[in-house]
Amino acid sequence: MSLFRVAALLIMCGIALSATPQNSATTPAAKPDDIPKSIAESVSGTLQFAEGNFLGLAEAMPEDKYSYIPTVGKFDGVRSFGEQVKHVACAQFAFFNEFEGKKPPDDCEKGGNDPAKTKAELIKYLKDSFDYSNRVLATLTAANALDRVEGRYAGPNNKLQSGTSPTSTDS
User: Fold this and answer.
1) Residue 28: pLDDT above 70?
2) Could you count the other beta carbons within 10 Å of the beta carbon of residue 77?
3) pLDDT tens profile 43-71
4) Does residue 67 contact residue 153 with C-beta atoms inside 8 Å?
5) What is the band of 88 on the pLDDT scale with cuts at 50, 70, 90?
6) Domain coordinates of the chain in residue numbers?
7) Which three-class secondary structure state does DSSP give residue 6?
8) Residue 84 — very low, low, confident or very high, per pLDDT cuts 50/70/90?
9) Does 38-68+77-171 carry CATH code 3.30.450?
10) Burial letters for 30-54: b for 16+ Cβ neighbours within 10 Å, e otherwise?
11) How much is the pLDDT for 18?
12) Cα distance between residue 151 and residue 157, in whole Å
């Protein structure tokens, strides 16, 4: 299992454990206006969940910790926190470029070619990547849901399946 997947799993476990338990007896039923009205709305929840949590984490991390790399254990060659933020942003662009049939950015494993380096620049890059991802995912319809997607990030797959798993990467 890649270090990124382990880190993502740990983040998700932390989020799940910190969530306030919901009592179904006290949780109001969904209103008709809350129900998704399109395929895109139906599958966008995963992306929006990841966006809120990862962006929240990136914003909460102090700037002087963006260069943090663990030193105890087997962490040779891993990304710093800032490099991981940049990688996720680049991978989001790459994934949804392929969703649209476009060429993804080069070198996302190393953060791509975007010049972002400071916390503010990296957060802007991350926000831009999620804004782009949400705009592209909003184009998912019944007519194009089974269109083939090719590439190392989003494919081989179809748009519907790709739209339900954009936040996972192998690196």
Assistant:
1) no
2) 7
3) 898 899 989 999 999 999 999 999 999 88
4) no
5) very high
6) 38-68+77-171
7) helix
8) very high
9) no
10) eeeeeeeeebbeebbeebeebbeeb
11) 46
12) 9
pTM of the full structure: 0.77
Let me know: does 169 contact 98? Beta carbons within 8 Å: no
DSSP output for 34-95: GS--SHHHHHHHHHHHHHHHHHHHHHHS-GGGTT----SSS-TTPPPHHHHHHHHHHHHHHH
Q: Which residue's entry shows tokens 């998912």?
A: 140
CA distance 43 to 146: 14
The structure tokens 């002087």 sit at 64
Check if the beta carbon of residue 116 is closer than 8 Å to that of residue 104. no
Q: Report how far residue 43's alpha carbon sits from residue 163's, in angstroms, rounded to the nearest whole number.
A: 6
Q: Which amino acid appears at position 157 of this protein?
A: N
Token pair recorded at residue 36: 């998704």
Report which residue type is found at 12: M
29 pLDDT above the threshold of 90: no
Please, which residues have CB within 8 angstroms of residue 57's CB and are 6 or more apart in sequence? 11
